[in-house]
Amino acid sequence: MYTAAFATAAAVFGACIGSFLNVVIWRLPQEDPSKRSVMGRSYCPHCGAPIRWFDNVPLMSWLALRGKARCCRARISFRYPFVELLTAAFFFVLAWWPPMGPVFDGDGVFSAASAAALGLHFTFVSMLIALTFIDFDTQLLPDALTKPGMAIGVIAGLWPGLAGLISNDETIAPEMRSLLASLLGLVVGGGVTWGVRALGSAVFRKEAMGFGDVKFMGMIGAFLGWQGALLTLFLGCVFGAVVGVTLSLRGGLLARIPFGPYLAMGAITALFCGERLVELLFVTWPEWQRQNPSSVYLVLTIGVGALLAMLWLLRRARR
């Protein structure tokens, strides 16, 4: 009962955060500095009229207005309620299945430690959502989000276990082991992505991936640790290759394919299912490989194929 009530409250809070993320997604990439600030009242992007508070209630206002602005009757994109609903859904799932343990136990006892960790995960997911939609719109991952995200991720690493533990040596404080895991995740996430970027540029003789992806992966690694970073990159390549090749075969390849959204999908998957996937890949799967030695070629083919397909799609999109 306590968990259900808390998860519902988290979903409502998530919808409100999603409303703010819509402001960030719209304003942050603006070239005009006066329009870039995410503070201040919301205004209609079509006619510039201020939006009154009762027309700015997450989800409800869009439904009540039937998707049209009250001031000028211009169409309001479905993206606005979608971002609010998406954020609410992720917040609900995080509150219902918190990666760092329940905020309320069976007797309703509140855990401040779990609540703080959950707040950091709320922040991480919110940044993933904002960066995903900005990358869709502009093919850019702004430093105004990725660099603070890296800093927040490292600070969050002080929370024991949030980014994993770098060592099992109990003589070292768990906060220090977790911080080192976060720093290593930042270096591995950004460093491996930079290496892939350099390799793709050398092979295709043209920039195959933006440097924003490198910083984005550094941010993800700071939150998820080095294993989560590698898992995110692998899953991002698989997701991107599957979607990109499907669109290409259907003749609907976009003019430019951003890699950030697929990395975000990989990060979300790693956040919720990372331990199970790591166990599958490094415990269950190797055991199966020992029984079936030829299976290693299947893994290599999938991994290398997904990476090459993604690099090819990125290069083709950047022509």
Q: How far apart lie the N and C ends?
A: 55 Å
Total helical segments: 10
Rg of Cα set: 21 Å
**What is the number of beta strands?**
0
Please identify the structural class as seen in this structure.
mainly alpha
Q: Characterize the main sheet.
A: none
Please tell me the total number of domains: 2
* β-strand amount: under 5%
Which residue ranges are poorly predicted, with pLDDT under 50 across at least 5 consecutive positions? none
Which percent bin holds the helix content?
55-70%
Overall shape: globular
The SSE order reads HHHHHHHHHH
Helices and strands in order:
Elements: H1 2-27, H2 33-36, H3 60-64, H4 79-96, H5 112-138, H6 143-156, H7 174-204, H8 211-249, H9 260-291, H10 295-317
Task: Give a written overview of the molecule.
By secondary structure, the chain is an all-alpha fold. It has two domains: 1-138, no CATH class; 140-319, no CATH class. Helices cover 69% and strands 0% of the residues. The protein has helices spanning 2-27, 33-36, 60-64, 79-96, 112-138, 143-156, 174-204, 211-249, 260-291, 295-317.
